[in-house]
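Students often ask why inverse folding is considered easier than folding. One informal answer: many sequences map to the same fold, so there is more than one right answer. In these notes we will look at a single instance of the problem. The structure comes first.
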């Protein structure tokens, strides 16, 4: 049997409980990736315009935005298996209800379903990163987080391939039934697959941090406020930028280049194969190039590709415009997602163990709030016929601001790591 490369061999050494948790996350991400790839196109097929699509899909982020901070404060130092289990039950259930409500034309019910799905997603988002870090020794944290992020790419590959295959079949008569394989069918299949996640989460151990928070659960230590602010600033910039354009990339290719959902899913699958490989390479890249290479280098390159992709709209009639846009689309996502495990590890290292659940919740709140506000902004901009390329340039500027905001965190963590001795592996950042 051929020997695995060293960067892959390190994943084989991860505990079984980590693989179990990642498998559950994979099933949940099947729903996320199906909605990312196809939900907007399904809503468009049901007769909704861009503003209405943005208004409906933004409901997913309202509950998370409002409840994330209280949830993070409540979960600090507590067992996380139960919140993750119930989140994995509610998420596919509410996703299924929302999907059926749209199919039946019950838009108010669909809006309520998306709102409930946002709450279920909140439980999963707040607990996932802290839970993974509790399941592994500190020396394996890079591999564990990279594996967790790789589940998104793996789910996106499966979702994209299934979408491509089903929609290529189109229609099928089987045992007297006439089956139509469209966006709805793909969304339904992948949503049903997500119901397997609770069975995996129920088998997880339930470790708690060695240091439990002192004082009332609503209390935030005074010295933690500047630490939290610096840790969350990059997320605020990047989440706002992503909310303006990334969630509407399928509409960009559909409106500007008349690219079908089948072709879009196929190109998305190619991109996500690269995302999977790039994500697994993160620990090796970090070892070779440090935080700066793993975060600043790859994200800056991704921002340039996004700007080029958007500006291709100006020359959309040219023969090279669509191939250029597709190439940028395929390469941008792996580079941007490649920084995800590194930025998460950097942030969690910077804030310390006692604030991990809180920062995870705040990150979820920021992403939800930013995407909700950005979706509303996109709704307004498109209602006034603002071209996509201008929206993409705004996203690029926000991405660059967020990327270089990580320098503050990198310098602080490198300063701690350069000290010859600490009484604990990670001193409390509030005491710096």
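Output (designed amino acids):
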């Amino acid at each position: 049997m051929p020997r695995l490369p060293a960067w892959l061999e390190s994943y084989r050494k991860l505990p079984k409980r980590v693989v179990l948790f990642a498998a559950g996350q994979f099933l949940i991400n099947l729903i996320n990736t199906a909605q990312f790839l196809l939900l907007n196109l399904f809503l468009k097929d049901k007769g909704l315009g861009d503003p209405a699509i943005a208004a409906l899909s933004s409901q997913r982020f309202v509950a998370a935005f409002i409840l994330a901070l209280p949830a993070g404060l409540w979960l600090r130092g507590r067992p996380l298996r139960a919140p993750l289990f119930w989140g994995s039950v509610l998420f596919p259930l509410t996703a299924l209800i929302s999907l059926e409500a749209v199919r039946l034309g019950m838009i108010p019910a669909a809006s309520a379903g998306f709102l409930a799905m946002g709450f279920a997603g909140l439980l999963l988002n707040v607990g996932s990163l802290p839970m993974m870090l509790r399941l592994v020794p500190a020396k394996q944290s890079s591999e564990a987080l990279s594996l967790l992020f790789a589940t998104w790419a793996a789910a996106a590959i499966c979702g994209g391939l299934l979408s491509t295959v089903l929609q290529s079949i189109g229609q099928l008569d089987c045992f007297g039934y006439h089956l139509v394989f469209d966006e709805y069918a793909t969304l339904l299949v992948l949503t049903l697959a997500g119901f397997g996640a609770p069975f995996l989460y129920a088998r997880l151990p339930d470790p708690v941090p060695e240091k439990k928070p002192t004082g009332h659960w609503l209390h935030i230590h005074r010295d933690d406020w500047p630490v939290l602010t610096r840790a969350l600033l990059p997320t605020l910039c990047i989440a706002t930028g992503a909310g303006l354009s990334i969630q509407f990339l399928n509409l960009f290719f559909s409106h500007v280049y008349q690219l079908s959902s089948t072709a879009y899913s196929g190109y998305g699958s190619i991109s996500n194969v690269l995302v999977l490989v790039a994500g697994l390479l993160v620990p090796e890249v970090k070892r070779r190039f440090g935080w700066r290479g793993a975060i600043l280098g790859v994200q800056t390159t991704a921002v340039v590709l996004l700007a080029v992709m958007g500006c291709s709209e100006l020359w959309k009639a040219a023969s090279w415009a669509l191939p250029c846009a597709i190439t940028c689309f395929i390469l941008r996502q792996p580079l941007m997602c490649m920084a995800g495990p590194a930025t998460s590890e950097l942030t969690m290292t910077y804030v310390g163990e006692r604030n991990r659940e809180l920062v995870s919740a705040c990150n979820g709140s920021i992403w939800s709030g930013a995407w909700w506000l950005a979706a509303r902004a996109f709704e307004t901009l498109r209602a006034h016929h603002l071209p996509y390329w201008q929206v993409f340039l705004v996203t690029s500027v926000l991405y660059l601001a967020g990327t270089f905001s990580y320098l503050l965190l990198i310098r602080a963590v490198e300063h701690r790591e350069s000290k010859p001795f600490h009484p604990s592996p990670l001193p409390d950042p509030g005491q710096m």
